[in-house]
Design a protein that fits this description.
With about 300 residues, the chain is an alpha/beta fold. It has helices spanning about 5-10, 15-25, 25-35, 35-50, 65-90, 105-125, 175-180, 205-215, 225-235, 245-250, 280-290; strands spanning about 55-60, 60-65, 100-105, 125-130, 145-150, 160-175, 195-200, 220-225, 240-245, 255, 265-270, 300. It is elongated.
């Protein structure tokens, strides 16, 4: 008698399915799992045959989940969590292991998050972390990342979202630029000033809106798509820039005595299906603690 599909199912193919859905390519999955590319391909094909559905669309750029694959994903994640729980029953209570993918802004990563990861990884040597800073292409709902720290509130996906605070901003310029400014009694008289700001695609950001209000139709002398570029332009003396305090305070720039009427909210987003994973919680708690350290200028933490 021919065996049914469920009898042909190999439960150890589920981690391969999850890895491909997260990595997007066979080669990256093979590297993560420590097996050959042919093994990964064979096990995905075996799983698809056992279930009688196509789980992935094969493209030159990589593998993408089909609708059936997306439907299977939460069940595979539940199985992953069950296996983690099973292992923890025989593991020391302080053991945290596995892989976590964190998406965030490059400036937050370089200035705050990555330096803070040193102690975390020292405490948990079996933990590995990907830090992805190209957040415009990262989709938590599609499992391209497990958690994210973002400067705009996510609006899509099966996510748990928490506001963890806000960044304070100031108006900064180089010492040479500030000393050469035309001073008036009005601290907000910027009629003779040059400003550095955001490209049009970023007009929704609070800093861009502040500049739009105060420039009153005047053009920016320089527009960029990153905060790091604005920082360097201000250091070079090109003009004034609206920058987060944590980024500018140790740069040698001077902060003008101008009160900003906004803060930039910071959001933590975690895929709902992974929110109870111990490794995810450990990384999330550590990153939040680093961001809420008052030395970095994060205020109004919740």
């Amino acid at each position: 008698m021919e065996s049914s599909g469920i009898e042909q199912l190999h439960w150890d193919d589920a981690p391969v399915f999850l890895a491909v859905s997260r990595q997007g390519t066979l080669s990256a999955t093979a590297k993560e799992l420590g097996v050959g590319v042919a093994t990964v391909s064979r096990r995905i094909e075996r799983l698809e045959k056992a279930l009688g559905v196509t789980l992935f669309l094969r493209h030159q750029s990589g593998y993408r989940l089909t609708r059936e694959g997306e439907d299977l994903l939460p069940r595979a994640e539940q199985l992953e969590q069950a296996m983690l729980g099973f292992r923890q029953q025989r593991a020391p209570s302080n053991e945290v292991s596995g892989h976590v993918r964190l998406a965030t802004a490059e400036n937050l990563a370089n200035s705050i998050i990555i330096p803070a990861l040193a102690s975390l990884l020292a405490n948990y040597p079996d933990l590995t972390i990907d830090v992805v800073t190209d957040i415009s292409t990262v989709n938590l709902h599609g499992q391209e990342a497990d958690l994210a720290v973002r400067m705009t509130r996510p609006t899509r996906g099966n996510l748990k979202i928490r506001r963890i605070g806000a960044l304070e901003y100031g108006l900064y310029g180089s010492k040479s630029y500030v000393s050469s400014r035309v001073h008036t009694d009005d601290a907000c008289d910027f009629g003779q000033d040059r400003f550095i700001g955001w490209a049009e695609d970023f007009a929704h950001l609070p800093a861009a809106q502040w500049l739009d209000t105060h420039l009153q139709g005047r053009a920016l002398i320089l527009r960029t798509t990153t905060l790091s570029a604005q920082l360097q332009a201000a250091i070079a003396g090109i003009g004034l820039a609206v920058l987060p305090d944590f980024l500018a305070r140790n740069s040698g720039l001077e902060r003008l005595p101008v009160s900003m009427d906004f803060n930039q909210a910071i959001w933590l987003a975690v895929h709902t299906d992974l929110s109870r994973s111990r490794r995810i919680r450990v990384v999330a708690d550590h990153v939040v603690a680093a961001l809420q350290d008052s030395a970095y200028g994060l205020v109004d933490a919740q």
